[in-house]
């Protein structure tokens, strides 16, 4: 009887443990990912090869269950985020993934433009417009705009990127009314919408939409970037460096393994990203010699400062380099001694 009871209890406990792994909590867990070499990912027709490597860094993210939640609570380089800090209101996992992949596409386009222009190679872009990708419930645009609408004008102004659109709105005041023109089903519509504070973005105003730029890039020589399912804009800087390296005869890696992160804008500005301390861990594990980190013009809590703190904590020999622009990264590499 006692033996049967023990076996039954063990089975019940195992069923409970197994079942609880499928029960997710309203949190996401992020942890250090990998540093991936870009040479197999980026290909410029007839491009030059280098002895060293440029690497993009990633973080791993997934929904938390009770076990991953507890592990993250007591792990230094794992972070917990409430779902509303990751996904937009009423946004599904699939919609979130699509948004991240679209951001990656925009990042690749900017990286190509920046690298080709710097290398003096042919690159042309045709801007087709700004499209609405997601509309948040309970925000001013809800019931007015729909995914797929193409923004034509805002207060009579036209824009050449979603960033210009967002920057323009962010300078407005809560309750201020704007006029917006947009196309839907080949018909132009005009509406007036009042601005409201954006949830989780202190002091920023908006109407509750997420946008994507529709732009065609043509280059000579041709370039392809096979980023598969990597999402987000944070690989932009490293893509631009890898493309530039393949376009120019000089080996700018000088035999070194160079990792980094940062969004790249069409003017060559390097923007901040999230999870940089976890990316420092990933780059160190991959044996990187140098890590480029967004400097944010010396801001007190910049990506660079957080990266330096993490690098000291894990006692890495990797050199952490602050950059505000693509050109600054090239200038640093020009001074680096060969390995």
Automatic annotation (TrEMBL):
PDZ domain ranges (all copies): 100-186
UniProt-listed SMART domains: PDZ
Database matches in Pfam families: Lon_C, PDZ_2
Listed transmembrane segments: 7-29
UniProt keyword Ion transport present: no
Key words of the record: Hydrolase, Membrane, Protease, Serine protease, Transmembrane, Transmembrane helix
Active-site residue numbers: 234, 279
Documented EC number(s): 3.4.21.53
PROSITE patterns: LON_PROTEOLYTIC (PS51786), PDZ (PS50106)
Record-annotated Lon proteolytic domain positions: 230-336
Domain of life: Bacteria
PANTHER family associated with the record: ATP DEPENDENT LON PROTEASE FAMILY MEMBER (PTHR10046)
Protein family: Belongs to the peptidase S16 family.
NCBIfam families named among the record's database cross-references: SepM_fam_S16
Protein's recorded name: endopeptidase La
Organism from which the protein derives: Peribacillus deserti
